[in-house]
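Sorry to interrupt, but I need a hand with the structure work. I would like you to pick a protein and set down its sequence and fold. Please put the record directly below this note.
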Amino acid sequence: MQIKLAERLREVREKKGVAQEKLADIMGFDKTFFNHVENDRSKISIETLVSLALFFDVTTDYLLGFREDE
């Protein structure tokens, strides 16, 4: 199974209407961090994955592509 974090993160972020720069500001990252993640040029920690799942009200399994339902 392919990990789909980059595309799933972009999907949920756009669905919630949150810009990459705003998300980075909220979570305390450099403004380009999520651009790099969504373009598969940077990886994230487990802690960041969990924080994103909580912020967007989805499961970590969904963000990683292991489940189709949020």
In short: The chain has one domain: 5-64. The CA atoms of residues 9 and 63 lie 6 Å apart. The radius of gyration is 11 Å.
